[in-house]
Amino acid sequence: ALTGIVEESVTGVHRLYQLSKAGKLSVPAMNVNDSVTKTKFDNLYSCR
Known about the structure:
By secondary structure, this protein is α+β, with helices and mostly antiparallel strands. The protein has one domain (about 5-45). It has two helices and two strands; from the N terminus they run E-H-E-H. The chain has helices at about 10-20, 35-45; strands spanning about 5, 30. Strands 1-2 form a two-stranded parallel ribbon. The termini are far apart. The relative contact order is 0.20. The mean pLDDT is about 90. InterPro entries: Adenosylhomocyst_ase-like_sf (IPR042172), Adenosylhomocysteinase-like (IPR000043). Pfam families: AdoHcyase.
């Protein structure tokens, strides 16, 4: 069973926001790009 969605692309996140606003999103969704963990990881490791 599907228990949640994670999305990274801007287009995908925008579509999920539209679905949520319309009440058509049946499971929780998280925007990975806005997570503090991803930001810290990218800042630490992507500069090497």
